[in-house]
Amino acid sequence: MTYLWINPVSERMISVEALERMLEKHDLTRVVCRESWGEIVLRKYRELLEHADGTFADARCPEAVSLVRSLQPEIQIADIEPILIHCAREISGRKDLCDGQKLVTTPCQALADAGNALKLKNTRFLTWNGLLQELGDTVEGAC
Predict the structure, then answer these.
(1) 89-113 burial by CB neighbour count: b if 16+ within 10 A, else e?
(2) CA-based Rg of the chain, rounded to a whole angstrom?
(3) Could you give the C-alpha distances from 116 to 23, 38, 89, 112, in angstroms and in order?
(4) pLDDT tens digits for range 36-94
(5) N- to C-terminal Cα distance for the chain?
């Protein structure tokens, strides 16, 4: 079985009907996170800022982190993984999904690369366009 977690950015680019057709056509089972990772990550940032001494850079975008490190190395980078990575860790470790591969869509290649570098068990990160290309598909109803 192949499970698919769709990043909310990607999800908004396709109609519900088109998504359901694509999932059925390619025998993909959509999964969602049980935890509210968006709220959890937001809370972590709030807690960081309440106790921060100095300036912290947001760590959600690997490209932005690289840019900050190259231009302003004195700025601290928040040690908080992106929501997408939290979701992927949950999905990768869920016992109810242990019988298959997990695909995690990302809005950009940098996040896909960062996710794949984690080498989560039976979990692969790819951009939405990369998924469509891999499936040899286009999706009607996409924005």
Answers:
(1) bbbbeeeebeeeebbbbbbeebbbe
(2) 17
(3) 23, 21, 11, 6
(4) 999 999 999 999 989 888 888 888 889 999 999 999 999 989 999 999 999 999 999 99
(5) 28
